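Note to self: keep these together.
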Amino acid sequence: MTTQNKDILSAKRTIDKEIEALRMMEDELSENLTKALDIMQQTKGRVIVTGMGKSGHVGTKIAATMASTGTPSFFVHPGEASHGDLGMLTQDDCVVAISNSGETKELSDIIIYCKRYGIPLIAITKNPDSALGRAGDILLKLPDDGEACPLGLAPTSSTTATMVLGDILAVALLERKGFTKTDFKQRHPGGKLGSFLTKVSDLMHKGDEVPLVGEDTTLQDAILVMSSKMLGCVGIIKPDGSLEGIITDGDLRRCLSPDVMNKKVIDVMTKNPKTIAPDVLAVEALKTMNTTGKGITQLFVIQEGKPIGIIHMHDCLRAGVV
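Structure:
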C-alpha cells in the first residue's frame, strides 16, 4: 500500500470516528439542552465560558461565536480565574464549564465561586458522575466513545463534539432572539463579511448630493446639475416627487444634435429607469448594474416611489463590495 493510500485511509477513519461521535451526541440530546438555553437566554449579564487545555481553546471559539451572534459572552481562563479573574463574574452571569473528563482540577475555584454566589453553572462533560458533572445545575453530555486518535489520548472526537455543541447553543440562541443579518453586520463591520452585508442605504448619496430636476427643465440646465453632482446622470421627477426618468452621459452622447440644448429633459430621458430599495444589500445593487442589458453605473434609490438617494458602482467598489 502506498503512503498516499495509507494517509487517505487514516483520514477516512478519523472522519468516520468523529461522525460516529456526533451521531451519538445527537441521539443523547435531551430536555437539558432546552434548560441550558433557557438559562443563557434569561441571563441578564454575560455567558462566561471556561475550560482548560484543548477544552479552553474550543471554549474561546464558542464564546466568540456567541458574542458575534447576539449573546454577550467571553472566555475566562480557569488558571487566571484563580488569580483574580473571578472578579469578572457577576451574579447576573451564567457559566459554561467544559471538561471532557469532568475532573479538571483547575476548574474547582470557578465551580466553588458559582456555588457560593448562586451563579448558574452549565457543565459540558462526558462523565455525569464527575466533579463537574455533579456540580453543574444543568449537564450537557458529550459522547463517551473514545477519540479518533489511535492512541485514544489526543483530544480529537471529543473536541469536535464540544465545538458542535457550542454551535448548537449559539445557533439556537440566535434563532430564539430573532437575530438578523442587520444585527450580524453591526458586529462584523470589517473584512469580507462586513462588505458583503453592507446595504445600499449605507453607501448611497443623499440630500443635496442627489442630481434631480423637474420634467420642465431644459437639457442645458440639466447638464449643469449633472456636472455639479459628478455622478454621471440626472434624475427627472414628476410634480409629485416620484421618479419619471433618467439622463446619463451615454444618453447625452446619443442625442447630440444642433438643437439639443433647447430640448426639455422629458424629450431625452430614459423612462422607467432601473432603481433599487435602500434596504437591499449593496452586492445586489452591484449585480443589478452589471447584469442590466446596456450596463449601467448608477441606480436611484427609491422609497415609496420617490428618490431618496443614488448609488454609484464606484461607491460599491470603494467599500469592497464585489
